[in-house]
Amino acid sequence: MKTSSLLKSAALVLALFGASARAAAQEPVRAEPSANVAAEHASPCEEYAPDDIVSPHITDSHCLELPSFPRFWVPHEVPLPRWEPIVVGGISFDMSPTRHVVMLLLASTLVCLTLILAARSHRRHTSMIGRPKGFSNGIEAMVLYIRQEVALPNLGHHGEGYVPFILTLFWFILFANLLGLIPYGSTATGNIAVTGTLAIITFFMVEIAGIRANGIGYLNTIFYWNKELPVGVREFMFLLMTPVEIIGKFSKPFALAIRLFANMTAGHIVVLGMISLIFAFKNIWIVPAPLLMATAIMVLELFVSFLQAFIFALLASVFIGTIRAHH
Fold first, then answer.
1. C-alpha distances in angstroms, 31 versus 6, 87, 92, 102, 133?
2. How far apart are CA 172 and CA 201, in angstroms?
3. pTM greater than the 0.70 cutoff
4. Residue 204 CB partners (closer than 8 Å, separation 6+)
5. Which of 55, 192, 205, 313 would disulfide-bridge 170, Cβ 3.0–4.6 Å?
């Protein structure tokens, strides 16, 4: 395992967090007088039913949930700081931190710590005994699998430079997904602004990779011009296929954003539905069945967290490789 790839991924995740956090925090609203802004900031916390333990995991708010003592099962809401909105062209943008921004910051911090500590441990063990062991060995196995089996086969010839980006996507999305499964956590990837930002970053990376690899030939990925077709048919296909090529460029990141958002939200909604059966039937004998089903869904969500991070990284590498070898 190349420790430089781990360190590059740890550095890239900070930039990835910054873009995603700004998207999660940015709430465009119409500019209002300062008195109304103060009134709006008076109640920053969402109101949930006392028995609702799922909605806080998939919704965003200006509060954090922390355990309270001795009744640790009743969350204690801590308001996050509110900043004055930035007004641009009569539109007010609220850049105050939210619950999902905190989760993104925590995810990026955990990724950096995991990869940097793994790289240092890998280097130390390799110099001492000639091979990594323990924690660094497990991280190496995951990194090598993503690098050798997912990224490089799809990125194409000389695609090593894009491997840190693919690894960054995988680890960042994985930690953000897993944070939504722990108590008092929240699924930032269940926010369409976050997944949309990740998809936009991937879109620009794909297009830049195409420009670097093809030069002026990059225009062929926008305008369909097949020189092998006879005159007349070539012009007809140009008019027919060019809009399709353009739509395809935007449908790929759109699919990335919706897939991750929908899958990370759906599991929590199913768990909420299972637990709601207890209160719908109002019968003590029905309790074990919904609890067992909800537990099974949560175990499945653990698998889905890894799967969605893997799929996002896989498709990103496929899109980059496809445009680099467009000819």
1. 44, 7, 5, 26, 57
2. 13
3. yes
4. none
5. 313
Other C-beta atoms lying within 10 Å of the C-beta of residue 295: 12
- Rounded Cα distance between 170 and 6, Å, is 12
Amino acid letter, residue 180: G
Tokens encoding 216: 């002026």
- Block residue for tokens 């997912």: 150
Neighbouring residues of 245: CB distance < 8 A, sequence distance ≥ 6: 221, 222, 223, 224
Residue 186 contacts residue 57 (beta carbons within 8 Å)? yes
64-120 per-position pLDDT tens digit: 877 777 776 667 788 888 888 888 888 888 888 888 999 999 999 999 999 999 999
CA-to-CA separations, 269 to 64, 93, 257, 264, in angstroms, rounded: 20, 29, 18, 9
Classify residue 2 as left (phi > 0), alpha (psi -120 to 50) or beta: beta
Count of beta carbons in the 10 Å neighbourhood of residue 238: 14
Is 43 in a helix, a strand, or coil?
coil
**Structure token pair of residue 64:** 């954090």
Q: Distance (Å, rounded) from C-alpha 307 to C-alpha 60?
A: 24
- Taking only Cα atoms into account, the Rg of the chain, rounded to an integer number of angstroms, comes to 23
Reading the block at residue 133, the tokens are 């062991």
Q: Where are the domains of the chain?
A: 3-23+101-324
C-alpha to C-alpha distance for 208 and 159, rounded to whole angstroms: 13
